[in-house]
Amino acid sequence: MKIPAIKRLVETQTLESLVAAEEALLDEQQPAFEVEGEDEGEQLTHVFAAIFILNHMQDNGSEFKDALREYTKKVRVSIS
């Protein structure tokens, strides 16, 4: 997971385009735009994180850094 790649997606893509990219990656197809990542798994992680962050920003009126912090908290909990 690379934070700069996630930030670029949040800044340049809409929620709808990210959901379409997620579906494309899950169907083992190329998304309509470039998603950084070493493999499909990392690309999917970046897209999923961007979706979470955009939703969190929209739902809570929060800034990117606060939404990112919430996402990383969830990742840490799921790992432990």
Short description:
The chain has helices spanning 3-12, 15-26, 40-60, 64-79. With 80 residues, the chain is mostly helical. The protein has one domain.
Shape by Cα distribution:
globular
The low-confidence parts are: none
Amino- and carboxy-terminal Cα gap: 17 Å
What is the helix/strand order? HHHH
- Proportion of residues in β-strands: under 5%
Number of strands: 0
Total discrete domains: 1
Mean pLDDT equals 96
Q: How many alpha or pi helices?
A: 4
Q: Which bin fits the share of residues in helices?
A: over 70%
How large is the radius of gyration?
Answer: 12 Å
Secondary structural class: mainly alpha
Q: How would you sum up the major sheet?
A: none
Pfam families: DUF6952 (PF22264)
Description:
- Pfam families: DUF6952.
- The chain has helices at residues 3-12, 15-26, 40-60, 64-79.
- It is built from 4 helices and no strands.
- Helices cover 74% and strands 0% of the residues.
- The radius of gyration is 12 Å and the shape is globular.
- The chain has 80 residues and is an all-alpha fold.
- The protein has one domain (3-78).
- Helix 2 packs antiparallel against helix 3 (40-60).
